[in-house]
Amino acid sequence: MRDEFRADLQIVSQLLVDMAEGIRAAMRQATRALLTADRRAAETVIERDAEIDDLYRHVEERVCDLLARQAPVASDLRAMITALHVAADLERMGDLADHVAKTALRRHPSPAVPAELRPIFTDMAAIADRMAEKIASVLAKPDVAVAAELDRVDDAMDDLHRSLFAVLLGEDWPYGVETAIDATLLGRFYERFADHAVNTAEHVIYLITGETTPPAN
Amino acid sequence: MRDEFRADLQIVSQLLVDMAEGIRAAMRQATRALLTADRRAAETVIERDAEIDDLYRHVEERVCDLLARQAPVASDLRAMITALHVAADLERMGDLADHVAKTALRRHPSPAVPAELRPIFTDMAAIADRMAEKIASVLAKPDVAVAAELDRVDDAMDDLHRSLFAVLLGEDWPYGVETAIDATLLGRFYERFADHAVNTAEHVIYLITGETTPPAN
User: Do B181 and A185 touch (CB under 8 A)?
Assistant: First the structure.
């Protein structure tokens, strides 16, 4: 029974790693679509979001099956509940990549992001990518130190988010309201992507240590 | 055992109803803060978000305890997993009310929403309130027909969201970029509130019928 549980848990972990790699690839490609007006990249992200949703459903089915068959308790039960939370966060991160891709597509062939904002979005995307990489890594090999780093990386995302608004609200903003709206929503998509990465890290820390942090806003 | 499970499930259901009523009250008060520049209302929403977070943790603890003690299967297990999903959606709806309140507070004593947009936000808030009311109702007394109505009500929210952008992007928009950014984010907060209400309804439908719908974007 115990070995069977370990084997099942391993399958669930692998599904979560697959999800994390999937959403990382999705956000990379969505960023390329955004910054280089790459229509094909945007379409690929949107098409492949269904694969991430499928993985999410697989995790749920596996966990429910495992709860029903094995009735785990204590840390094994905690691992199952954590898997559900993590899968939900990753599924949402996939949606946010999809939203970035759709914004790129809506403005295509024009770029959705004007020249002044490209450095900020390039940096936001780099941070999002680092966070997704760390998430995939801690899901493959749980590590409190690596998970805790996510919170620090998220501070850099928040700083970028603030500097985005500083540019949009500068007196010399030349692009009008429509571009400001796009940039506001895009900024929010990257920031929420990072928030979900932090949530995921907190779930992993809880799994390892049993210590919880309050839900993030 | 069976009676004990029913009693425990009843406690979990009541916690979810309390959460739904809490987030409904929070969004009503956040809207008042927004539309009447009511500082006290905004502060109350922000202070009381911790109560919703506490309820969320109580649901999680109760469900984990129940899974460990009673090892439910089939529809009883489904009810537990559904409770976790619903609690997560409601917790997030509380955060969104908190975001609306914080936006109102940031602009106080100026109104965050200019006169031209008040009718749209009044309508969005009315729909959000109807949705929260229906959610509290289906959680107290699961009903597929009432839950299914949420999707239709959400269409009205999406229409309002589109008309918000039409006003912001009109040639005669007189308020500049900052007000447009606030309105964009506020529109997103109400729209996401509605999305989570629809998710909750879908979870309730799944609980009753065993039929699932794909995760919403």
Answer: no
Of A81, A84, A168, the CB nearest to B177: A168
Inspect the interface and report whether the beta carbons of B177 and A173 lie closer than 8 Å: yes
Greatest mean pLDDT range, A190-194, B168-172, B175-179: A190-194
H helices then E strands: how many in chain A?
A: 6, 0
Let me know: does B69 contact B118? Beta carbons within 8 Å: no
Backbone angles phi, psi at B71, to 5 degrees: 45, 60
Overall size of chain A counted in residues: 217
How is domain B2-209 classified at the architecture level of CATH?
Up-down Bundle (1.20)
Nearest of B55, B33, B18 to residue B125 by alpha carbon: B33
Query: With 90 as the cut, is the pLDDT of residue A179 above it?
Result: yes
Asked if the model's pLDDT at residue A76 lies above 60, the reply is: yes
Select from A165, A209, A96, A110 the least CA-distant residue to B177: A165
Tens of pLDDT, residues B14-28: 999 999 999 999 999
The C-alpha of A215 sits at a distance from chain B's nearest C-alpha, in angstroms, of 7
What amino acid occupies position A85?
Answer: H
Q: Is B51 left (phi over 0), alpha (psi -120 to 50) or beta?
A: alpha
At B64-85, the pLDDT tens digits run 999 999 999 999 999 999 999 9
Query: Which residues on chain B place their C-beta less than 8 Å from a C-beta of chain A?
Result: 49-50, 53, 56-57, 60, 63-64, 67-68, 71, 73-74, 77-78, 81, 84-85, 88, 91, 95, 98-99, 165, 168-169, 173, 176-178, 180-181, 184-185, 188, 212, 214-215, 217
What is the pLDDT, as a whole number, of residue A211? 72
Count contacts between A and B (CB, < 8 Å). 83
A178–B177 C-beta distance less than 8 A: no
